[in-house]
Amino acid sequence: MKGALTVFRKEIGDYFGSKIFIILLALIYIAGLGFAYLSIQAIKSAPMSTDQSLLVKVFIDEMFFLKLFTVGELRAIMTFNFVRFFGAFIPLIGILFGFNAINSERNSGNISRLLAQPIYRDSLINGKFLAGITTLTIMISSIVFIVMGIGLRAIGVPPSSEEILRILIFIFICIIYGMFWMSLSMLFSVLMKNVAAAILTAIPIWLFLTFFWPYIAPQLANQIVPVLDGATLATQLKNLSLSVDLMRISPFILFYEATAAIVDPTLGHLSLAVSDSDLSKLIANPLSLNQSFIQIWPQLIVIIMLAIICFAVSYIIFMKQEIRST
Amino acid sequence: MNNVIDKPIIIAENLTKQYAAKTVVNNLNLTVSEGEIFGLLGPNGTGKSTIILMMLGLTEPTAGSISIDGFNSTKEPIKVKRITGYLPERLGFYEDMTARQNLKYTADLNSVPAKDIEAKISEVLEIVGLEKNKNSLVRTFSKGMKQRLGIADVLVKDPRLVILDEPTEGLDIKIANQILENIQILNRQKNITFLICSHQLNLVQRICTRIGIMSKGNLIGEGRIDHLGRGLFSAGKYRIEIEVSEAPAQIIDKIKGLDKVLSVDKKENVIEITADEDVRSAISKLIIDNNLLLTRMNIKDSSLEDIYLKYFKEE
Fold first, then answer.
1. Of B62, B73, B90, which to mutate for an interface test with A (greatest number of A Cβ within 10 Å)?
2. Which chain A residues are Cβ-neighbours of B86 within 8 angstroms?
3. What are the φ and ψ backbone dihedral angles of A203, each rounded to 5 degrees?
């Protein structure tokens, strides 16, 4: 364990000193502050607004503070709010933190020197993984807390304890989600000697699952269960639920469903087939935290399992890999 | 070396390693005593590096066992690695870190007490002559400097045994000799045992107290260099080869009668003589006195190269 801590300390230092970290941190801060600004504008103008272009589900009700994270601009093709931005961006952070974890040590020739020190072999991979998660946690929680702080000043409505709890759960889901992508790219760093190959494998997977799969899945569902003119309601429903199930193959969808239900208590169900504009017509009927949690736990478990499986596989492969000097 | 004490630090017993169907190390039995500089020599790909990996517990032997200072390398690798320094063949450092930061990381991994670390780093950098490059980034270092930093890196943990894999590979002769001198000094002053794996015989042989020769996974010769030579070439340190116009039997007998000559072998007009001394002048005098024509005369001392050539002739 001591070895892992030493590796951890060194890696943390590396992360915070690296250009990639500074760039990612800058991007996430700029985007986070941008979304905070948009949300505050929307919230401030909401009660008097008749402008339907704003996605406003703001009612003077409880859970007001959470709107900071869910209200966005509808003028874009897709509503892009804080939560969705995180869903798209966190995997990138995870990938960039993990893709060169092991193979760079191997390529630079450091690995045989390191493993000749009196530490267990897993100290290396454990230390690196821990350092990655810690850095990720610091990045995500800092921007969420900054947005909360700004929001508090701008709106002047303090968050209730339940809202704080929901935000903490949101941060937790973000970290788990980032952990999954980091374990996945770490797996590639164990499997592939070439650093470029590792990142060029991880990034397309991220792009595909995040941006293409949600569009491909409904098409696929249409092929399997065609909805023809005059199709029965049952067929339509079947098509719909198949489409949603297919979409859930992508961890992005799982993340989105989980976080949406947590930060938007009015979401009574998780069907993605309902568009945002439809949702805004629903009567806000916030669920209790307990109920929201029941909604998301399958999603949460799957993300956690995916992260654990990826890490376990890279751990086992790394432990069994031959360390040759040449 | 006078500081060799008769206490074994490396003991390999019937050590065997197979990858798939290929035997990389075959039934190795080897003992290295404390205070020795043992040279494990042989061409590339003869299992030297694999032996090292098994010593450090990074690879498990297929059969047999190896222990360092009484600790079984496979079962107690941490204890072994606590007292053993290892300089890998493909040595790498964190290029974006300074020499000091790299050494500090190694010191931390070895649990060197925080208060001693800085002094220790200065001390080992001093030994290899990199004290003034302490705060330079490793990326600015030349190959030779990196190799010296490698030696410093190994010394940070105060090892009792240091294993060097091809320490002089790719270095120019001056720097290679500097490194070897460093090794010799460390051996004498700090009584560190060294195991040097190399294919550069002439270079490395100089400082070794004993050598072992590897061929295709087998240790085919082991001992002090001079002993090894004697055992190999029936006897004698000098081998003189002469060619004469004709070689009557009486001249052979006369050469045999010379002082220090051990054996004489005749193949037609070529006579091979082994002797403990350089007896060329006596031989040439003898031949001229007998009215024979000396057409050629060569001398070979049985250096490591000869041993090496002999062992690897069949490859």
1. B90
2. 112-113, 116
3. -65, -50
> Is B81's CB within 8 Å of A3's CB?
no
Task: Enter the ipTM.
Answer: 0.80
Q: Find all residues with CB under 8 Å of A88, minimum gap 6, and list them.
A: A210, A211, A252
Of B53, B89, B108, the CB nearest to A323: B53
Question: CATH classification of B234-312 is 3.40.50.620, yes or no?
Answer: no
Low-confidence ranges of chain A (pLDDT < 50): 48-61, 73-78, 270-273, 325-326
Cite the residue boundaries of each domain of chain B with CATH code 3.30.70.100: 234-312
Of all residues in chain B, the one with the smallest CA distance to A18 is: B96
Place of tokens 């992360």: A15
Instruction: Please give the CATH number for the structural domain made up of B8-223.
Output: 3.40.50.300
How many contacts (CB atoms, under 8 Å) link A and B? 76
Alpha-carbon gap, residue B162 to B154, rounded angstroms: 7
Ordered by start, the domain boundaries in chain A are 2-320
DSSP B193-248: EEEEEES-HHHHHTT-SEEEEEETTEEEEEE-HHHHHHHHSSS-SEEEEEEES---
pLDDT, averaged per 10 consecutive residues of chain B (315 residues), comes to 72 89 88 92 85 90 92 92 92 92 94 92 92 93 92 93 90 88 90 91 83 84 71 61 81 82 81 80 84 80 62 51
Percent of chain A with pLDDT over 90: 40
